[in-house]
Amino acid sequence: MVRRIRSYHEVGAAAGGDVLEQVRAQRRRLEERLAQVRRVVAVASGKGGVGKSAVTANLAATLAERGHRVGAVDADLNGPSLARMLGAAGQPLEVREDGVLPATGAAGVRVMSMDLLLADDDAPVRWRGPGGRVAPPGAEDAFVWQSTLETGTLREFLADTHWGELDWLLIDAPPGTDRIERLLGLVPRLDAVLLVTTPSEAARFVVAKSVRLARDAGVAAVGLVANMCAYVCPTCGSAAPLFDADGARRLAEAAALPLWTEIPFDPRLAASTDAGAPFVLGTRDAPAAHALRALADRLERDTSHQEAPP
Ligand code: ADP
Predict the structure, then answer these.
(1) Please, which of 94, 105, 254, 285 could form a disulfide with 86 given CB 3.0 to 4.6 Å?
(2) Nearest CA to ligand 1 atom 26
């Protein structure tokens, strides 16, 4: 049966009954699903617009091109762009008894995103609170509703998607340190956290806080991905720093983090990735493609993984 679903609650509703029991059952399913995944990696950022989704899409495509089985979940529920960047937007989802089959994106990456559940591209996500009421902006309880519902939806995304066996599951986290904290509480096992940032001074405080949260949660590998470091001229290929040329290295040093890669700004990366064709798949020689492949190398080398599922 193939059809577009508006809400995962259609799947959950069949279970009926008590909400707490549903949440417990979902947690168990989440653990079972993740037992089929060799490495779970969160791609996070303190702020939006720093290239987190573009990095996730290109990293997923790089790993898939190398023959890995890759899943990518868009946890950025209010600004979902991962399905589009992986060329999977508009695909209908197939609902099975034991979960929803993810869409298939570029290089075979399995994708789940709020984008795939919304009826049209312009539809905003509207969080409903008790009684089905949409919280008016500024209402005291609006943030609490939204946090709770966002967490619940993300748990559903992870637990009720039929990921199958995966070598990598990449989670594109919503921006903000509070969201990183919630994600760390929700996902029972994270093998690595990538912190994506521009190398500007302003990002320093946000990076330090995120690192502390990830380390406190026991994440073994935390690495810094400095994006938009230099501008690559698409005509002549020369690169000039966009921010302080040494900013990324100093940011990494201050946070005692390994600098896993420095990706230059390349307008071709935005043009192809935003159109659903991850840049790395079509461009071999550009410095930005090299930097993204170097990131995949680091992840393959520096993260430990679960043994292959039985
Ligand atoms: P975020 O997920 O952090 O909000 P996005 O990944 O959506 O940010 O990136 C914002 C915009 O910047 C997108 O159009 C994306 O394609 C573009 N972008 C990201 N990184 C680069 C880069 N290194 N070079 C060129 N464009 C980039």
Answers:
(1) 105
(2) 270
